[in-house]
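Issue: copy button drops trailing tokens. Both records pasted manually instead:
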Amino acid sequence: MKQHGDQSWSGHRELTYAAVHRLFRRLAGPDDRLRGITRAEYADALDRAQAHQDRLLGVNRIENFRNTGRSQLSVLGPTTHSAYANPGVQREHFMADPYLRGEDNLANNTEYLHEQLRAAGTATDLPGEMRGLGAAAHALQDSYSGAHAWRAEAVYLGDPTAPVESLHIFTPSHMVGFEDGLNTHSDEFDEPPAASGSTQAAVEATYRMLRAYELGRQDPGQAELLIAQTLEPMTRASPNGVTVNLHPSREWEQERNRRLALEHGVLQPAVGPDQAARYLGAATSGPARTGGAAAARPGDHRDTGGRAAGLRGKTPGQGAGRG
């Protein structure tokens, strides 16, 4: 998923601002502050933190280079690293480590969310807190992108609890026109329509996570339980388990095309009538729409220097990170 969207499609920035807007509508005091933080301060800090996850440059250490147990330094941002070269970092974007089974990958990705929220809760200053909270928000939002994971079809109706069915593999070579037969990160999903069900699901999921975190700050003794109860329905495996899409096979391409049609409303999800009525209603009225990503337009918030460094917001063929 790219960083910056426009009026027709949403990126991480729009999802983040929409979720914070919803959070403040529900939990802020009469002065529109939460823990003394204004809405703009909270949204700007969280957005900068989540965008840091898509940095293209920066010295970092690959702890398990090519699954050999050896470490290696890199000057490229982790978002550019192949899943085969740096399997451990893939969970930061809710993608698959190719050396693990699907269920183990999902457990690993879910634990990363918990780790980052714990780090946020124990931070001693706002930047440190937002660093963990932003990393968790970024990864959770990525889980609703068809480029990173495929969920049950209810996600296209806005259901944030649609179970995870499969996870994809990222290799950067396809960004420069070389097909290595290993990449299943499909760039076509990087610009989800602002009104799509998957966009609405990502906003709602981010809001629910932030709300659980903030309620946990008010009652530290219940923080872990609140977060666990909130994340569990949104990180659940499908009844058939979780697969890893290791190769862009013909069958994978057919499924990708079908899901793109679902994302853009060309096809309708095959879900039960009760479920369809529930989520179609939520997508056309009430908080899910008024607080959705379409409401968080780039012009609605002042820009900051940190945002310009987010850098999954790129045009097709530009840059080397996973969109």
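Record 2 (pasted manually too):
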Amino acid sequence: MTWSHQEYIIAGFSISFGVAVVIFAILFFLVRWRSRTFYRMIEVLFSIKHYEATLSNSREFLDIYGVQIDLPATTFGFLPALALLIMATAVLTATFVLFISELILISHYVAPNSKCPSDDEMDCYTTINNTYFFCNSSDTRIDTSLGSLVCYRWIKQNIGTVDILNQTGLCGGLLQVFGCVWGHYCGSATTRVGFHGNSYNRIR
């Protein structure tokens, strides 16, 4: 049975939403009951360091590129961790969705007067009125009258180790980009507001 264009869109949204919920649940578990593991992951992703209170230093704080944010033992002290939780969820969700988008639910935009995608058989729909077109070969040229298409397929054909490694490398690169962008943004923001290299204690 052929899926409709709307069903493919709903499936794609459902996968993304499901991935986000699972990642959020895992990270919430970590921040609530395995905080050391959570903050180690945050340091790897964003280079934000967490310092626990010790006998010699009673302060627990985050070091965000030279700006120290206190984590008081109050209800509001959870807000920085919550912000990091949401940020990490967004970044990891985007990365995992990218990973599965080329392996599980594949979608391609096809320009007018182009050939079908190289992913074997695909269900395609015009971007104007959702007219259905079946691509059964990458040698098939799409009629100009159809305009542009969006094509879908479940499970990439003939998945190999190289495909998985390429996708893993792409996702790893994306994580590095997120980390660099976040570092540049935080560094610029803290410099503008005059907190660079100083300690900032939130009003309790």
